[in-house]
Amino acid sequence: MIARIRKLAVNVEETHREIGRDISPATRKAVAVAVIANPFAGVYQEDLSDLMEIGAELGTLLGERCVAALGITPAQAQSYGKSAMVGENGELEHAAAILHPKLGAPLRATVEKGAALVASSKKMGSPGQVLDVPLGHKDAAYVRSHFDGIEVRLNDAPRANEIMVAVAVTDSGRPLPRVGGLTHRDAIGEDGLR
């Protein structure tokens, strides 16, 4: 592994009740985070291919951690997302290099299929700042019940020369969805939209 990982964390969120109603089965989201050294902190680097390779490694590592934390098979995963926060000596392009060119394909392999684009966000931040990870259905972007998100915060990350990278996976959509549209059950998942 070329990523210099300082810390890994995995959180699982379960919702059992919402607005006085039981949720059965509970909706579950997992988010896995890696805090890594930013090899280009404080310097302009034209070639960001090292960060792209790190993204590929983290797509597999973090995706597998989420699936394991949920205790599901890859086929049971329903939505996913990715996000990165660079410390103050980094730049947004560093987060983009990790998230976009190569992280998606390995993440899709960990959740089986993944025809839809992986929802993503990137930002610059400091230790303890919240990182929001957007979520969308893994095979059909038009499944509105899976438009969601999860946040993660680590009290000591990212430091100035680090990048905090997060991947989230769910086994369901939002609790009590009622805004219509395509359902998970009816999604075909061939074009990434429907």
Second-tier CATH architecture? 2-Layer Sandwich
Give the uncertain stretches in residue-range form.
Answer: none
Tally of separate helices: 3
Helix/sheet category: alpha+beta
Radius of gyration: 16 Å
The major pleated sheet works out as: 7 strands, mixed
The CATH topology label is 60s Ribosomal Protein L30, Chain: A
pLDDT averaged residue by residue? 96
List the helices and strands and how they pair.
Layout lengths: L4 E14 L2 E17 L11 H22 L8 E8 L5 H8 L4 H8 L7 E6 L6 E7 L10 E5 L9 E9 L24
Parallel strand pairs: 3-4
Antiparallel strand pairs: 1-2, 2-7, 3-5, 3-7, 5-6
Helix pairs in contact: 1-2, 1-3
Question: What features would you describe in this structure?
Answer:
The chain has a single domain, classed as 60s Ribosomal Protein L30, Chain: A, CATH 3.30.1330.110. Helices cover 20% and strands 34% of the residues. It contains three helices and seven strands. Strands 1, 2, 3, 4, 5, 6 and 7 form a seven-stranded mixed sheet that branches. A hairpin with a 2-residue loop joins β1 (5-18) and β2 (21-37).
Sum this structure up briefly:
The protein has three helices and seven strands. It has 194 residues and is an alpha+beta fold. It has a single domain, classed as 60s Ribosomal Protein L30, Chain: A, CATH 3.30.1330.110.
